[in-house]
């Protein structure tokens, strides 16, 4: 039945201990597993093995975005579809990747390594399955933000239109919103599979770039609380708390200590598959991205990893 | 491809004018069509023609409820599957049942509730433009929920209806209250990756416990309570929290006696998630986490 949602984002960091301390103490993720060069983390309400992998490398960057598919035969269907599109597909066998079953990997037209996976080891959420309370106390044990789950990823591409056609025609993503330049070319697209405003977005920029990945929060009060926690910990805030025109979401952008941009996000809407696409024109790009400010800052436009 | 989400409810009201005034001015729905004995309404952010239909009748209660399917072909495949299981299915052509309505199939649940699957309802748009839209319209009236969320029914045999929904219609169980005798007292099921799209609790067959509108957060739940109090609407349960679904909620009655809810929160659920179970001893916390008890009215009043 196709792609279900974002599964995990794999990034490289130049200081594994510092990154791990930030993602566990400030964000409030749970460390699930550690190998010689990688740490696997998940949010408290996630059942699957991990939603973020940190790997040591001499350079900060983006390794992989992995999406979960619903059925085992989806992998074979997508393997064929991506191959027919003319891109080589690699089968990763069970056991070759920590915490997950078989998967397929390929590069998108913008050179982003992408994975589709069906089975992840179930490590369970932080609540029991018998008479659970409806919340967790201090999931991080350190007063961290403690988002319940990962939400979406935004990548940069030189040819947004070409990338978008790949995600929609080959992988079945649906466009909810698009930003068009004066010539009618797409300079940003927001796409979903999970009946949310976006699971994946592409904006104009260098091929292979990661603009940010985002954690879900339940409401605007939690966004404020996240801002308090970020400020207390001396984290560099990029923009927010504010509101997006696109997606209608409420948001804060900030940087992990090594320079990868994070977001906390809430709100939005529930699009059906027949949702009519919303279009933003370039003269409204400021309000599209930051509805209250009405303009984009240079850092937001230029910094990516 | 599948059943997507709750599409609409059709409820009976003995006073069409009073009910229409309540649903438009207190709840804040928009009227999209009107006949002599029916009024069609939608929430502001919904694109489809209607999500609540008020039908004049001498009493209150539920006439039918509908779920939206992804493709027209889903109607054929579900019809075949239901008929193979001995369930009688009635077919409606596009627009046949009412203005703006889509193609549909109708059948009865084992509990006697009339259920519909619908495709291709007229798209009338939400209140925002499709180019450079603001994040919400100004000047909304009442609680102004963006959309309908779920329906909660009563049934004599919750197990039987739950099995019907799972086996024939691909609903997935997220939570259940299991009695000391091992039978399901209440169940919550989803198709939209939310905590629930439909739920069942032990009670008379064909009964409506409530239907719920989505609001975006806990502040909106408080605003809804303010709105109820201002208009003299009967609040049954103050803003509180469910154990089941983790949602936050407010229960109140329309002027004809149908129970409404505004709901927010919950969680995302994958299709392969394991259901959560509540024991009978913990049923109070399961339904009302802060109070820890379920009041008699909540258990005995339905329409």
Quick recap:
Chain A has 305 residues and is an alpha/beta fold. Chain A has helices at residues 16-26, 72-84, 160-170, 220-232, 285-289, 298-302, and strands spanning 3-13, 30-34, 38-42, 52-56, 61-69, 90-92, 103-107, 113-117, 149-157, 174-180, 186-192, 200-204, 209-216, 237-243, 250-255, 261-266, 278-281.
Written account of the structure:
The complex is a heterodimer of chains A (305) and B (303). Chain A is α/β, with parallel strands linked by helices. Helix content of chain A is 19%, strand content 35%. Chain A has 6 helices and 17 strands. In chain A, the strands form 2 sheets. A 9-stranded mixed sheet of chain A has the order 14-15-16-13-9-12-11-10-17. An 8-stranded mixed sheet of chain A has the order 2-3-4-1-5-8-7-6, with helices on one face. The longest helix of chain A is centred in the first third of the chain and has 13 residues. Chain A starts with a strand and ends with a helix. With 303 residues, chain B is an alpha/beta fold. In chain B, the strands form 2 sheets. Chain B has a 9-stranded mixed sheet. In chain B, strands 2-3-4-1-5-8-7-6 form an 8-stranded mixed sheet. In chain B, a hairpin with a 5-residue loop joins β15 and β16. The chains are: A alpha/beta (305), B alpha/beta (303). The interface between A and B is large, with 45 and 48 residues.
